[in-house]
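ESCALATION

Customer reports they have been waiting on this structure for their group meeting. Please prioritize. Original submission:
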Amino acid sequence: MDEIKEKAVAKLLKRLNTDDAELVGELYDESLAKVLDYTNRTALIGNMAMYVKQLTVIAFNRQGAEGESSRTEGGIKADFEVGIPTEIKQGLKRYRLAKVVPF
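Update from on-call: job pushed to the front of the queue and completed.
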């Protein structure tokens, strides 16, 4: 595990109040891949690490609800945003690289 990921996972373990470093590490890796894919980059720059941590927290809290877009239990309806939430996309927009497609 590289130093940046180690520090991030340690902070996330405290924030999420869990001891499962392996799970949090996996969720962090998945969130990192999503952020890099969305921005068309190969490495984090600027404040992108903050958005990776936010996505990791969201993924941790969504456990057990994978694949659902909404749920109703006991008259309470919950809607889930699919993919990267709009709030995080807004923050990542400035880091996106344009793709050039040949004609």
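Sent to customer with the following note: The first strand starts at residue 70 and ends at 73.
Escalation resolved.
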